[in-house]
Amino acid sequence: MTASLITGVTTKRVLATLAAAGIAGFGLTACTPDEHVSDVPGTNPAPITGNQVEPGDLVNADDVPAAPGSAVGTANLLSPSGDALGAASFVTEGNSTKVNLRVSGMTPGSHKVEVRSASSCFAPKEVEVEGGSPTAAPVGGFTNTGNVIAGGSLPGIAVNEQGNGSARQTVTVNVADLDGKIVVLLTGDTAVACGNIVAN
């Protein structure tokens, strides 16, 4: 009688273990990494890849708190017509520089990011203002974006269908060498956004 009782208990344990494993296996198959994005309500949401920058917080894009005021350089990114498209910040990270980017209103897709040797995205031109005094104003379009500096090519930034994108990347350039340079976003070989890097 003892043998049949033990066998019955053992059988129940084995069945309970198999049932639990089956439930866990079913649950894991529902979490496959091969899920496709869907626009249908109640289905899988669109995946978010990469490290997304919180609005207004370029310095801490990698979720590692930085000391207040730790950004040693910034750049406001402009379109060729001078419209605001986003911003970049630069933080010292050893002998390299961490570059945090945030853009909006851009064409969806992948864009190259480069730090270049030019000192300004726009060449100034003389324009007459009220009273006849000339002043400098940007020419429509980027006129001289210079050449990529050594170590200044970044992996790039992906812009979603809404025209927004963010990225955190590191360049092997000392932050002191970035002052007075520009950061350029390109589609192919065409500059689509540019900003003058200014040391803080």
From TrEMBL:
Superkingdom of origin organism: Bacteria
Molecular function GO labels: metal ion binding
GO terms, biological process: superoxide metabolic process
Family statement: Belongs to the Cu-Zn superoxide dismutase family.
Name this protein carries in UniProt: Superoxide dismutase
Species of the source: Gordonia hirsuta DSM 44140 = NBRC 16056
